[in-house]
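Running this now, will post back.
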Amino acid sequence: MNHAGSLMKAAAAVEPPVVELAGVTKEYPGGIAALRGVDLTIARGELLAIVGPSGSGKSTLLHIVGTLDLPTAGSVTIAGHDAAALGDRRLSALRAQHIGFVFQAFHLVPGVSAQDNVAEGLLYSGLPRAERRRRAARALERVGLGDRLRHRPHELSGGQKQRVAIARAVVGEPDLLLADEPTGALDSASGEAVMELIHELNSEGATIAVITHDTEIAARLPRQVRLRDGRIVQDTGGPDRGGADGDGPGHGIPGSPAGAVVRGDGSGTESLSEDAR
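Update: finished.
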């Protein structure tokens, strides 16, 4: 293990988890339970898959972890913040400051350059436009698109579009990257390149959860959390747990060392106050 990786694992051992769910249930009208008593902990620096078939609850879990929705019961803590204690504006600020999203459909703005698409990820950061664009250029270089700054979405391949989306998600250096079916719209070669990029970002310290139905993709990640009928039925843990399978709710252990919707929204200009931390 390199020195940076050793430092990251040491930090993960003393820092609070990035995600803590305890007894999370999500019910919809008509008695439909999408999640049933889910316990999940994701430590800083982990790379994991949340995997399950259609209807298993993985999309609902994505929305809960991403604070796009709140549970019917149970607690959700993101980067030390209790989601239930925050109003809509502070939840938006929490997403803007701590969570990056990557979705299958890219969600790039048509007619806008790759650099400006990525800079939108910092729109509510308070940074001046020139600094946002400078950081966007650096993020694109980080994902291997330093020569595509001025290209618009229609001038990019599917794999390149997803790399732009990933750059937008990580440009603000969020605590957590949620990647929802990041290879679903790509051919096999482009999908392979995107997964290699996800591994590279994780090796640099990013905490990443990949939500997928693809068991082959899940099997390549250090930890797999398997959902069925709204429950965690298996959690392999990270390498520090020896890769052992386990039934029932899972609790995250840092994985091997190894952030699309624009982060935040229009109401996310308010910073989290000290009394909400």
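Residues 238-277 have pLDDT under 50 and may be disordered. More later if anyone needs it.
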